[in-house]
Amino acid sequence: MRPGAGPAIRATALSKCYGSTRALAAVDLEVGAGTVLALLGPNGAGKSTTVRILTTLTAPDSGRAEVAGYDVIRQAHLVRASIGLAGQHAAVDGRLTGRENLIMVGRLHRLSHREARRRAAELLERFDLVPVADRPAHSYSGGTRRRIDLAASLVSRAPVLFLDEPTTGLDPRSRSDLWDLVDELVGNGTAVLLTTQYLDEADRLADHITVVDHGRVVAEGSPEELKRSIGSERLSVRVHELEQLFTVSEAMRRIGGHTAVADPVAREVTTCTPDGARLLTEVIHGLDGTGIVLDGAELLRPSLDDVFLALTLRGGSE
Ligand SMILES: Nc1ncnc2c1ncn2[C@@H]1O[C@H](COP(=O)(O)OP(=O)(O)OP(=O)(O)O)[C@@H](O)[C@H]1O
Ligand SMILES: [Mg+2]
C-alpha cells in the first residue's frame, strides 16, 4: 500500500450505466485499514458493479476511486497488485485440482514455486480443504469451490480484500470459520469490503455498513447507528407494587419525553425511545430516593432485518 495514502478504499461519485440500466448513481464510500465495510443491498442494487469497478474489472462512466492509494483507472496494475478478490461467482479452473489452482494464483503473484506450494498447503489446511485438495476442481461441490476461491483471494496477503457475497452457499460451520478468518485479517490491518445479503453477517463483521438500492446509497453507519436510525427501541420496566406504576410512568415521561403506556396487569410501563439503555439508566437514577426498585426491565432492539426492509422494501430492483 502506498504509505500515507489515506484510506484503503475511497470512492467518490461512482456512476455506471449498462445500456439504459443505471447500475450505479454517484456512490461514495470509504474503508479504513483494519476495518470492514459491508455493502448491503437487494438483488441488482449495484453491489457487484461497485466491487468490479474498485477491483479494476470494469471502468466507471464517471467518478473516481483509489484503492491502496492508487487510482483504479490510471494505476490499475498497482491496484491489482494490492488487492485480493473473491468475486460473486467462483473463478476456479475446473481442470486443475484445488491445490494446483492455489499454486497457480501464487505463481501469478510472483511467488517462487516453493513459496506458492507452501502458501497453498497453508490455505488448504485453513479452509479444511486438505481431503479434497488433489481432486480436480470440477468434481467439487458448490461450497467447496467457493472455499477454494476464498482461499485464492488470500494467497497474496493483500492489504485490501474484496469479498463479493463470500458466504453464499457455505454451510453454517464454514460460514462461521470465514467470519473468524475475516476477524483475524482485520486484526492484522487488512481492509475488507464485503457484500452480503445476510444481515447477521453484516451485523457480526462490519464496522460500517453502506446500504445501496437502485445504484444509490440509501443509508450508512455502524450497525448500531443503522438500527437506531429506523427508530425505536422498546423499553419495558416492571415494578414490584402496583401503586408504584404511576410514579415510574411519570418518571419515564419526564425523562424520556415520550408517551409511556402503563399496563397494570403486567405491572409494566412501556415506551419507545431512540436509546433504551440510556433511558433505563436515567430512569433508575430518577427513581433514587423514591424507594422504588424495579423488578425487571426488557429492551427490544430493532434488528438489521428491520432496517433493511424499511430502507429497501420498494418492490424489485430490476
Ligand atoms: N454486464 C452487465 N450488463 C448489463 N447489465 C448489467 C451488467 N452487470 C450488471 N448489470 C445490471 O446492473 C444492475 C446492478 O447489478 P449488480 O450485479 O451490481 O447488482 P448486485 O447488487 O450485485 O446484485 P446481486 O445481489 O443479485 O448480486 C442490475 O440491474 C444488473 O442487471
Ligand atoms: Mg452481486
TrEMBL record:
Primary localization: membrane
Protein's membrane topology: Peripheral membrane protein
UniProt-listed SMART domains: AAA
Keyword field contains Transport: yes
Gene Ontology terms for molecular function: ATP binding
Transmembrane regions: none
Occurrences of domain ABC transporter (ranges): 9-239
Subcellular location: Cell membrane
PROSITE patterns for this protein: ABC_TRANSPORTER_2
Alphabetic keyword roster: Antibiotic resistance, ATP-binding, Cell membrane, Membrane, Nucleotide-binding, Translocase, Transport
Annotated family: Belongs to the ABC transporter superfamily. Drug exporter-1 (DrugE1) (TC 3.A.1.105) family.
PANTHER family listed in its UniProt record: ABC TRANSPORTER ATP-BINDING PROTEIN (PTHR42711), DOXORUBICIN RESISTANCE ATP-BINDING PROTEIN DRRA (PTHR42711:SF19)
Identification of the protein by name: ATP-binding cassette domain-containing protein
Source organism of this protein record: Streptacidiphilus jeojiensis
